[in-house]
Design a protein that fits this description.
By secondary structure, the chain is mainly β. Helix content is 7%, strand content 49%. It has helices at 3-10, 34-56, 243-246; strands spanning 64-71, 76-77, 89-95, 99-106, 111-113, 116-122, 129-138, 141-145, 150-158, 161-172, 175-179, 185-186, 193-200, 207-214, 221-228, 234-236, 249-254, 260-265, 276-280, 286-288, 299-304, 307-315, 321-330, 335-344, 355-359, 362-366, 372-376, 382-386, 394-398, 404-410, 419-426, 431-438, 443-450, 455-462, 468-474. Strands 1, 2, 25, 26, 27, 28, 29, 30, 31 and 32 form a ten-stranded mixed β-sheet that branches. A five-stranded antiparallel β-sheet has the order 3-4-35-34-33, with no helix packed on it. Strand 9 (150-158) and strand 10 (161-172) form a beta hairpin. The chain is globular and about 60 Å long.
Length: 475
């Protein structure tokens, strides 16, 4: 991974609406007491805490917690039936009294939106939504749900390009969701492309973030507008900003309040690692990220509305990241505090991977011996995953709120993801458990991710691709 690959992935740290599309038989129970689980965790944590006290004694300001890894005795037994149902079919399971699993077998592709299963029927040219059905999943039943679907038009001209199309949206249970098709268009020569798409704005059900783009791959440029659903009007977000900044942007990362933005640029002769800007919508100020705190940061991520995490990379001659130093930057005071110094950058393809995996305001730090710590990059506080050894094929994902870490282990010999083990480290409750999976080799698993703060799901199919599965886990 080089620095430009890294930058393009930064706005995908926190799952967005697109991630919902990547989601994912009753089992004979061998009961195990939850009290026993947590008693074992506590005892092991106390033992490990005694062993590591000396290691952290040199940094008395650093707070360290310990989560002890616990493997559930009960295994998950995945469904293996290739009989295609007539519509969705549901079965439930409970794993170790700590995880509720739901297996939704489907005759074709069904999506998830607003926490509901959906079936969409598009026109032949995939430009018009002809029909739609929604269901809530309760116990072993699918309960039909009627939604108040709306249709709006996009008709916007920006920088001489006419963006147009149609989209559909609804609000259910206080959540806004939307559907669009492929909106990309090309000029007559087929050389230049333009496109538009949406993102949700956290906490808002009256607007969507409209992203107008041109180009593909390294020529990709993007400009955001706020789209008001009630009027169909668009609102400028970067009024007064130097056009030379926005014209070279390939994306924008927003704070939770939508008051601050990080405008991500493209590499240039003057800035080979690309230029990045912090924009304040209320004051209209634009500040180069590499000037914040006087440390020459390469890029940044929001920890909250008052705090940025600044990343300083050290690269080799081929622009490959070697190590990274992190600073917590307090926006009101302008003060930068180093929270992690010159740690090697993680590469999954290494024979024995180690280093730092970044997740915005947190990171996972893996030692050469496989010891794992979760570091809060705002405070410097660390959480040791005791009793756990990281191995090649293991991976982590942080949930949207940043308080739970999904752990999964992948079998490198499998044709798909081959997820042999799944677990969750709860950084607030102080627990870390995982369970083994049986039968994953009979499914083609294509993606895993958080749906919300408590739910993880996997999209899968039988090996002949005739039957689809949605595997949903609640922790």
């Amino acid at each position: 991974m080089n620095i430009n690959d890294y930058r393009r992935g930064m706005d995908q740290i926190v799952p967005d609406a697109a991630l919902k599309e990547r989601i994912m038989n009753q089992t004979k129970k061998k009961t195990i007491s939850a009290r026993r689980v947590f008693a074992g965790v506590l005892a092991a944590a106390l033992s490990i805490a005694c062993l590591i006290t000396a290691a952290f004694a040199a940094s008395p300001e650093l707070r360290t917690a310990v989560l002890s890894f616990f493997r559930l005795e009960e295994r998950e037994h995945l469904p293996n039936s290739s009989v295609t149902p007539d519509g969705p079919d549901i079965s439930n399971a409970e794993i170790g009294e700590l995880v509720k699993a739901q297996y939704i077998k489907m005759d074709r592709y069904y999506g998830l939106s607003g926490g509901m299963l959906n079936s969409l029927t598009w026109s032949e040219d995939r430009k018009t939504l002809l029909d739609y059905k929604f269901w809530e999943v309760k116990d072993n039943e699918l309960i039909p749900v009627q939604v108040d679907m709306h249709t709006n038009q996009i008709d916007v001209t920006h920088n001489g390009i006419h963006y147009q199309g149609e989209f559909w949206w609804f609000i259910h249970g206080g959540q806004l969701d939307f559907f669009t098709t492929d909106n990309r268009a090309w000029d007559e020569e087929g050389e230049h492309a333009w496109d538009w798409n949406f993102s949700l704005v956290p906490g808002r059900t009256d607007v969507l973030l409209l992203r107008l783009s041109t180009g593909t791959q390294m020529e990709y440029r993007e400009y955001p507008l706020l789209y008001h659903l009630d009027t169909g009007e668009t609102e400028e977000l970067f009024a007064g900003v130097d056009p030379s900044v926005t014209e070279e942007s390939d994306g924008t990362i927003w704070s939770d309040s939508f008051r601050l933005a990080l405008i991500v640029g493209r590499p240039s002769d003057e800035f080979p690692n690309a230029q990045e800007w912090l924009y304040d919508r209320e004051t209209g100020t634009l500040t180069a990220v590499n000037t914040l705190g006087g440390i020459g940061a390469d890029t940044a991520a929001f920890a909250d509305d008052d705090t940025l995490i600044l990343y300083c990379f050290r690269c080799d001659e081929e622009d490959m990241i070697q190590d990274v130093t992190f600073y917590s930057y307090d926006i009101p005071s302008g003060r930068a505090t180093k929270t992690l110094d010159a740690v090697p950058y993680y590469r999954s393809w290494d024979e024995k991977p180690s280093g730092v995996m970044t997740f915005g305001s947190r990171c996972v730090l893996i030692s050469e011996e496989g010891q794992v710590q979760v570091v809060d990059l705002k405070t410097g506080d660390r959480t040791l995953l005791g009793g756990f050894t990281f191995r090649k094929g293991d991976s982590f994902q942080l949930n949207p709120s940043g308080n739970r870490l999904l752990y999964f282990s992948m079998n490198s010999n499998a044709d798909s993801l081959g997820i042999s083990q799944i677990g969750v480290a709860d950084l607030e409750k102080g627990t870390f458990f995982a369970f083994d999976r049986e039968g994953y080799e009979n499914l083609h698993e294509g993606g895993i991710g958080w749906d919300d703060d408590n739910t993880v799901s996997i999209r899968a199919s039988t090996l002949d691709n005739e039957t689809q599965y949605l595997l949903v886990y609640q922790f």
